[in-house]
């Protein structure tokens, strides 16, 4: 857990960057990320040294080689534990002229992050700022996975600008809801084809640590967790570095975070590879047909990125694989042939499990677009009997640009769902629907995700459509042209209003007229 003291130190560093001339929050994060990686490399090298000393053998794997770099400086002096003690001006020279050129040669080290270092640029403008950042990061207890993970999440929360391609940060509590509802298992292979900062993959990793802590006692599962479970794609090199570091700081050694244009490259090797897709892809409008992977156009002929991403998810999933993805509302009711074809495919050819309609301001201040979460299972043989709808009206935060919390911290997100002593009252539920979403979903899909859904026992199947959640039979959806917007099926109860008889209203008006006339006469009498 981050202390207030640590948060204020990060805020000071952030302000120092801004006053030092680096105004782009992505660049600030990137520079801090490089320095965190340098500290991590030094820790790994120290670990190897201690191992060699204990075993009285030469070091097997030297991260910092023996000898000097091309400019004649000893590689040993490039270690975090060495240069952090230098004077600011000397440290600035070491980091800028020696450490960063060394970082760009690190591709041979077997970590995902090292592979993304070839473009590393040192842009911290002054020795004083560098010394200040190094002092702060040196004070962070990096042996504590939770602290360093929370530290990085806190910094990522400061990225308050949407990217040029329409990408923006998904709120952490929405990510956690999607992860809890899909309930990842240690044998899953998870993919986010628009990974960004890797928020979904990090949350899935944390969920597995909490719910399946014994997986680390099994050598095979442990190896899978660190080397095969998590896959992310992005075509922004900065995001690849930030995402890889986020995973590393959350204790995943070597996730597959790779450069790939998800919509532009063919997916032959990736097709049918993943058992779970979690994503909030960017919706940038339209692409040219020439720039779209041919295998996606075979699924659905469209230029719309939101539809192409859905086609991509279907290709990536193996039969039985499941997905939780955020889509703009237009996907649910769009009238084009491509929209209808894709919705029909989800309902008739796959198993559409549920749709959670999100509140309008959930992505503010980045975007005010209305969105929903789609949950589906790839079957290639149908299986949709009923589609579950939930109309989420509140997520615990104000729906304006400020996004202020409306409840105490222990009542936000899914906290109340994890602690039976912390149930929300009716008034609190009106401000935070997330625990209710999860509780109702679990009556249809028990958290032992591999078990068959116990739909027969679920009260969701019999809820009237006037409630916040309800189920709609497949036949109704087909009859409505596969429209999946909740408003198409939700029934509104109109309160009965008793109106007074018109004759009574007219009599009262006549009485008022008489009173006004009498008052006017009295005034005239006073003026005489």
Descriptive notes:
The chain has 21 helices and nine strands. The longest helix is centred in the first third of the chain and has 31 residues, at 25-55. The chain has helices spanning 4-19, 25-55, 80-83, 88-103, 112-115, 127-139, 145-156, 172-182, 199-211, 219-227, 237-249, 294-299, 305-316, 330-333, 337-349, 415-418, 426-429, 434-444, 474-479, 486-489, 502-527; strands spanning 190-192, 230-234, 256-259, 274-279, 317-328, 351-357, 371-377, 386-391, 469-473. The chain has 528 residues and is an alpha/beta fold. Mean pLDDT is 84; it is low at 161-167 and 448-455. Helix 4 (88-103) packs across helix 6 and helix 8 (172-182) runs parallel beside helix 18. The relative contact order is 0.08. The protein has a nine-stranded mixed β-sheet with strand order 3-2-1-4-5-7-6-8-9, sandwiched between helices.
Q: What is the ordering of alpha helices and beta strands?
A: HHHHHHHHEHHEHEEHHEHHEEEHHHEHHH
Helix content: 40-55%
Strand portion, in percent?
5-15%
Separation of the first and last Cα atoms: 83 Å
Q: Tell me the structural class.
A: alpha/beta
- Report strand order across the widest sheet: 3-2-1-4-5-7-6-8-9
Largest sheet: 9 strands, mixed
In DSSP terms (H or I, runs of 4 or more residues), the helix count works out at 21
């Amino acid at each position: 857990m981050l202390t207030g003291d640590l948060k204020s130190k990060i805020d000071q560093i952030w302000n120092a960057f801004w006053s030092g001339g680096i105004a782009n929050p992505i660049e600030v994060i990137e520079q801090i990320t490089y320095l965190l990686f340098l500290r991590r490399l030094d820790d790994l090298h120290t670990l190897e040294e201690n191992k060699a000393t204990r075993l009285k053998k030469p070091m097997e794997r030297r991260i910092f080689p023996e000898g000097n770099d091309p400019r004649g400086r000893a590689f040993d002096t490039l270690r975090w534990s060495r240069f952090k003690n230098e004077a600011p001006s000397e440290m600035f020279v070491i980091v800028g002229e020696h450490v960063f050129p060394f970082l760009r040669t690190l591709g041979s080290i077997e970590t995902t992050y090292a592979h993304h270092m070839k473009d590393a640029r040192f842009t911290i403008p002054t020795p004083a700022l560098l010394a200040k950042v190094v002092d702060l990061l040196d004070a962070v207890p990096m042996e504590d996975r939770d602290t360093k993970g929370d530290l990085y999440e806190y910094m990522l929360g400061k990225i308050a600008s949407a990217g040029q391609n329409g990408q923006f940060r998904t709120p952490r509590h929405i990510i956690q809801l999607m992860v809890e509802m899909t309930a990842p298992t240690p044998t899953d292979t998870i993919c986010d084809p628009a990974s960004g900062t890797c928020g979904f993959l990090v949350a899935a990793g944390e969920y597995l640590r909490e719910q399946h802590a014994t997986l680390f006692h099994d050598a095979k599962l442990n190896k899978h967790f660190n080397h095969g479970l998590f896959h992310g794609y992005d075509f922004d090199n900065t995001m690849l570095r930030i995402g890889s570091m986020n995973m590393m700081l959350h204790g995943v050694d070597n996730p597959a975070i790779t450069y790939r244009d998800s919509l532009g490259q063919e997916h032959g090797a990736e097709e049918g590879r993943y058992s779970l897709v979690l994503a909030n892809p960017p919706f940038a409008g339209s692409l040219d047909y020439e720039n779209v992977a041919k295998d996606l156009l075979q699924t659905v002929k469209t230029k719309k990125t939101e539809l192409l991403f859905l086609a991509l998810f279907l290709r990536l999933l193996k039969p039985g694989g499941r997905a939780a993805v955020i889509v703009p509302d237009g996907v649910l009711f769009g009238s084009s042939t491509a929209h209808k074809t894709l919705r029909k495919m989800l309902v008739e050819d796959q198993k559409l499990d549920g749709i959670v309609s999100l509140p309008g301001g959930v992505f503010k201040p980045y975007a005010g677009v209305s969105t929903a979460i789609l949950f589906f299972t790839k079957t290639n043989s149908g299986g949709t009997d009923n589609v579950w709808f939930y109309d989420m009206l509140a997520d615990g935060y104000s729906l304006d640009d400020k996004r202020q919390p409306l409840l105490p911290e222990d009542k936000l997100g899914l906290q109340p769902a994890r602690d039976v002593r912390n149930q929300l009252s009716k008034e609190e539920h009106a401000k935070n629907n997330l625990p209710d979403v999860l509780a109702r979903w679990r009556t249809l899909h028990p958290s032992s995700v591999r078990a068959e859904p116990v739909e027969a026992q679920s009260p969701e199947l019999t809820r009237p459509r006037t409630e916040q959640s309800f189920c709609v039979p497949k036949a109704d959806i087909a009859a409505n042209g596969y429209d999946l917007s909740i408003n198409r099926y939700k029934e509104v109860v109109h309160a009965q209003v008793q109106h007074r008889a018109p004759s009574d209203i007219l009599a009262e008006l006549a009485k008022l007229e008489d009173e006004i006339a009498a008052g006017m006469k009295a005034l005239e009498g006073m003026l005489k």
